[in-house]
Amino acid sequence: MNTFKILGAVCLIAFSSCKAQKNAIVAHRGAWKKNNLPENSIASLRHAIDLKLPGSEFDVWRTADDSLVINHDAHYNKLLIEETNYADLIKFKLSNGEKLPTLYEYISEGMRNNKHTLLVCEIKPSEISKERGQKTGVAAVETITKLKANKNTCYISFDYDILKKIREIDPKTSLQYLEGNKSPKEVKADKINGVDFHYSVFQKHPEWIKEAKDNKILLNAWTVNDAAVMDWLIDQKFNYITTNEPELLSERLKAKK
Fold it and tell me: Is the pTM of this model over 0.85?
């Protein structure tokens, strides 16, 4: 059995609540790089699901007219998403001809023929105000709940207050903090159950790895594209490793067996 299938089977066991796993691959903005697909596209999500990867990450913004859309940067085709209506954004296609996907469309696709891949939803901090970012987080949870995808989704953000707001409205969902400026004990105190930091943060604070494990805080690292860093994280038994190179990470996992 290949590593993707093994990890997919592991993820299926823990799928409903994003429980502790070991070295599970999360495709950063979908599985896009090898096949030159647009990042955060429906196609990159579908490819991650078809590979049976344990997770696929994507980024959420809210437009001026309150549409939730999937894009990494604050701007799309030089338009600031938060100050632009959705109809004006979709005049510009992605490189594969797709239109800019809405969260509703993205989650709908993520639920189709998917028994393995966790949907890792990053709520982007607002460029306008803290309050707007929190409202975007709430709106995203409402959309995902409407689609009955709660058990298939976890939430991550660089904005700590967005995660705390999500926790207020959903006491059970899995939350992971991205910024890297709080210890595992600190996030646990606020009922956030995961740290998803740049790998260099863990290299600077290796004591946080043990602290997270001792406090049952999920460990995730981004964005890991170097084989040597992958090997170090695999040896540390992280729960998740987020990468633009899922195929390379799969090879490293097989080499470690």
Answer: yes
Closest CA to 134 of 165, 104, 103, 157: 165
Q: At what angle do helices 42-50 and 103-111 cross, to 10 degrees?
A: 20
* Tally of helices (H runs) and strands (E runs) in the chain: 11, 11
Q: Name the DSSP letter for residue 150.
A: G
Residue 2 zone, left/alpha/beta (φ > 0; ψ -120 to 50; rest): beta
Per-residue pLDDT of the chain in tens (257 residues, 90 and over written 9)? 444 444 444 444 344 446 678 999 999 999 999 999 999 999 999 999 999 999 999 999 999 999 999 999 999 999 999 999 999 999 999 999 999 999 999 999 999 999 999 999 999 999 999 999 999 999 999 999 999 999 999 999 999 999 999 999 999 999 999 999 999 999 999 999 999 999 999 999 999 999 999 999 999 999 999 999 999 999 999 999 999 999 999 999 999 98
Can you name the residues that pair with 218 across neighbouring β-strands?
A: 194
CA gap 165, 169 in Å, rounded: 7
CA pair distance 87, 84, nearest whole angstrom: 8
Both tokens of residue 139?
Answer: 């709106």
What is the Cα–Cα distance from 176 to 121, expressed in whole angstroms? Answer: 10
